[in-house]
């Protein structure tokens, strides 16, 4: 684009836009359009298994996995059938990564931070506290160099990663008292896993790991003082509003976790090219579908929680967020000092983030502040 | 979901989440997973034509159409080949709608407001001033009932519409003077098409239609005083920074126009089911790809414009936006009073918008204000 000449650009005039001649010159996309000669055996069929970290048919997430399998089967004319298993039906939810990696099953769906123990850098392709949101993460992974690094990381585990959904900005959690300062977090026993939990610990809180099914009872009995979960729709289904009064936002710990599809790479590479592309494309359709469903549902259930259940909506004070941001820096510094690949990914992540924030200020941020209302 | 019982929900415990039994009960998605028996003739091939409103290989938009064709060809194992034509190569850009509608070609790519003359309500599925952004429009169309109305509207023209891209929030335009009040818009000759132009006219400005290729020269010679185009990447390529000093944001007239794929419905309906689903899915992949490319590129080119070309970035004053919003209401009221289908679509659009704004305040808006920095 450096040698771009405006005059060339303006030679050709069309109604909607301009610049055919130059654009053709700077974008040789005729080449892109050439497609390898089809080498497809339409008689060969595949029966695959997909394990997930979600309960069977779990709203949005499990439903999305079922739809993914349906789309793939339909697009392949029935040549690639995928049986979707809920977490625990075939393997425990958090063994999804291992099961796909060792080839016990062909596919899995979950979030990168679940495998932080095996691949710490996977967290940057999921969610880090005070990190990028759904739209920014898409831009980084798809158009900003993120995918190549993600593939490099997962290739070590014989896995092919794909973006396959996003929850959007999560909520900050349920509390039985107001959080007016960082002091209010001290001694607080909160169910908050992963990096968010480490940040809370630095703030003097006590991060507890509680399985999803036990959170409600623990909160009711005072075994824990607070919990985060996902967003208004799923939080409503869990009934937290019956045992906690204050519902905080924003979800500083997860501003838009990437939900990932992982495919056993050896098996993926041996698939006919058309089926590979079908999987890639279906995953991107799920990516949009899940976020759209979350947005449409969270919207309705937030209003339900407030208007029908009397939930008190609260915003984390700026000062608390400022402190948590500082603790986040400490937590991330520890990770990158211990894991060289994390350092490499974090550098790319931060570079893209600092850069896109500049554009987001002018575009989306201004939309929400000046156009939304 | 009304009879949801927390106790049932908590019966089954898994590590990542909870609620298999209930979720299975409230979401009968086994049925969803059943796939019609494949009825696919893998020997039949199709050669289709796709016309677009963009110059051939136009950055992001034309490139995205080329990629769409490539994905479809790859996924179909070469059974559906699509030749993509730039605007004017086969039919003039703005005749895309008509050419696909009458079956001269099978597919087209453009934006709904281009066909406002034939179907005024199409504008609500594209962009209206002070309307929804990309993420909100996806949620409305995909998960909020928008698609059914869009399909109903386009069926009258024998067209099947699909979401197939988004530019994200656009920029507000290039000016040779500062805009400090609505008075500064009076008498201003600005290249701004569609509804944005009508709003400007109400503010006392003069909306001019100028073909893309003539904007630069008209601006240089003072035939027009100002222009809007797309965003930093495309605006940079047009060279506007050489003849206008002030670059305004936000693009209040287009907060995230939906780019659409239109397929001749009769021909689409006669396609084998697998190819139909391949087109639908590829369109959604383009949807994500285009927005990601716009975000990644706009980000870099905005910095280039400011740091290398000395462009003065300016934000529209709140008071000006407030006035333009009032004029927008007048413009929209005129449209819905003249066209009953527009009234119906606008009702759904506004209802969803008012509702999702509630959630966006808590999620994305707070992300941009409290987490971004």
Topology:
Two copies of one chain form a homodimer.
Chain A: H1 6-11, H2 20-26, H3 29-33, E1 46-52, H4 61-75, E2 80-85, H5 96-101, E3 107-111, H6 134-143, H7 146-155, E4 159-166, E5 173-175, E6 189-191, H8 194-202, E7 206-208, H9 215-220, E8 226-227, H10 232-238, E9 246-249, E10 258-264, H11 265-270, H12 273-307, E11 312-315, H13 318-338, H14 340-362, H15 364-371
Helix pairs in contact in A: 4-12, 6-7, 7-14, 8-13, 10-12, 13-14, 14-15
Radius of gyration of chain A: 23 Å
Strand order of the largest sheet of chain A: 7-6-8-5-9-11
Quaternary structure of the protein: homodimer
CATH topology of the domain at 46-168 and 256-295 in chain A: D-Maltodextrin-Binding Protein, domain 2
Largest interface (CB within 8 Å) is between:
A-B, 141 and 140 residues
Which CATH architecture of the domain at 46-168 and 256-295 in chain A would you pick? 3-Layer(aba) Sandwich
Cα distance spanning the termini of chain A: 38 Å
Total of helices of chain A: 15
pLDDT averaged over residues of chain A: 90
- Sketch the major β-sheet of chain A: 6 strands, mixed
Task: Return the string of H and E elements of chain A.
Answer: HHHEHEHEHHEEEHEHEHEEHHEHHH
* Model regions low in confidence, pLDDT < 50 over at least 5 residues of chain A: 1-38
Share of β-strand residues of chain A = 5-15%
| Count of DSSP strands of chain A | 11
CATH class of the domain at 46-168 and 256-295 in chain A: Alpha Beta
Question: Shape of chain A from CA axes?
Answer: globular
- Helical percent range of chain A? 40-55%
CATH homologous superfamily (4th level) name of the domain at 46-168 and 256-295 in chain A: Bacterial extracellular solute-binding protein, family 7
User: Structural class of the secondary elements of chain A?
Assistant: alpha/beta
